Amino acid sequence: MPVAFEQVVIHQAQFFMPGEPVDNESMDRFIAPLNRLSGRIKQRILAENGIRQRYYAIGEDGATRWSHTVMAANAVRACLQEAGLALGEVGLLASGSSGGDLLMPGLANAVQGELGAPPLEVHSVHGICAAGVTALQAAAQGIELGAHRHGVAVASEMPSRLFRRSRFASQDYQADFDSHFLRWMLSDGAGAALLSHQDEVLPTAQPGLRLRLRWIHQKSFSGDYPVCMQLGAGRESSRSHLDYDSWAQAEQAGALALRQDIRLLPHLFDIGIHEYVKLVRDGWVDPARISHFLCHYSSEKFMPVVADLLEQAGLAIPAERWYSNLRWRGNTGAASILIMLAEFLRDRILKPGEQILCYIPESGRFMTAYMLLEAEACDAPAPALSRPAVQARAATPEAQVDIAPPHDPDDAPEGLRELLTRLAPIWHDYRSRVWRTPLLRSLHDGTIGMEDYRKWMADWIPQVREGAKWMREACDSLSPAYAPLAELIRLHAGEEQDDFRILFEDYRQAGGDRTDIAQLARNPGGEALNAYLHALAASRDPIGLLGAIYIIEGTGQRIVPALLPLLKSSLDLDPSMYRFLHYHGQNDEHHLARWLMAVELALDCDDTGRAEQVIVETARRTAALYLMQFQYVKES
Q1: Most exposed of 116, 473, 497, 523 (fewest Cβ within 10 Å)?
Q2: Integer Cα distance of 454 and 245 in angstroms
Q3: Quick one: pLDDT at residue 402?
Q4: What is the value of pTM for the model shown?
């Protein structure tokens, strides 16, 4: 649930950009391509990200001209100057960044020192893109609780020092794509915001108008997925840079190169949009009321991705309400949202009642953050309550959300809105738990071995073999009223009846020692799932099994494709060892489209009024049992 605020307003937001803007043609004077391959990567990345200019705090000679700390201090000074507030009146300083000029102490302490500020409370938030809004939340909470009247949140980034050509001189110039990628994406800058208690009267960014902070919502999914963006470990190892015998060895091994695994990025937007859906469902966001959408995306390539996901959810924000300064300010990580907010307030004239929704995804190990601001007259009375009546709101028709992760809701037949809304949280809870099982954790950290892979397949093969059987049993248990549904399920069962043979051959190619499928047994989780599905299939009109198919096919479409790249990077696998995983990921999207048709048929044929409920209940139980099957793979 978001952290709601009733007493906090933002009086000023300012930014500091070092030096003169650097266009794409001039980048080479600061961070030149290392070789021909690097040059090609540069052209490809720049063509996709849409950035036309950025700022660097280093000079063309690679020397630092503005430090991390100095940029942050300059942004803070600008805020206080515009507000006419003395430094000694600030009680709390919170900073957000991926690092500072020193490994320790924290950046907030360094900024306080640079400013020569008197004693005050400080918070240094270490992270990546979401660190800026986390710092802002820390300052806001200090004011909301009554500990301070004024607080400053500042975020600063200076990745250019990592991208100088000299930093790569000791490495093989054929550095991997992951370490090349961010050289053409990130740049330097700092942003700051002055937060105050609502009773304080100060000059504001727009005369007569102030921004009330309604709430901040952020959630980390670091327990679900492996690292996507990191600095401090080599590409092929989780070994920390501190574990090497010297800094020179760490740099030679590539442990001091900033990397991003772009294959994982689609999951970042998936979880981010789902959080947005929940905010709408629970009444924290009304898309119709959002006047401005400040979206921090690292590349314009991702803008249509976010827009499409919002459209699929039926919660789109019109393009004319979006605001981004990525093209001319660049991607400044944690500082981006504060720089964006400051420039937005300078460029746009707001009216009382307009709401600003900010979205900040973080790819480090996946975080998502949202912040809602509302423009109001400086003399406006304080609202009685900024928290929505969640239960009442969630029950209203307009709060229903048309999204279910394993398929495209745009393709859903009419009449499935409520069912898909109820299935969505079941799916996302299941997905999160699967990614935290021992098997997938070993994929995260690269410790999975071939024996683990063989064990997984050995447990899975007899389960896959049973799929067509329980589907056909279910068809036999359907009464004549469900004949169209039975025909569709029999077609599906026929297509999948030999899938287990592909998986068994993969197992054999990977060194599996069982020569007969009959020698393989399900693990306890698989045994429980199999017993449940067969028992349900034998009951009268078992349409609840459509809930089981939702989870099983969704696993194939949304989870399995993400596992294959991790397996290939951790194990020396021949393509003949993972044909089933490749096939499953490619075909389950088609299968789920068929699932939608099956649900529509089931609802049309149902005369009991209980179809939706039993589908939801079966999905929940299947998710629990399928999760158990994953958990037991690593059991001895």
Answers
A1: 116
A2: 36
A3: 36
A4: 0.78
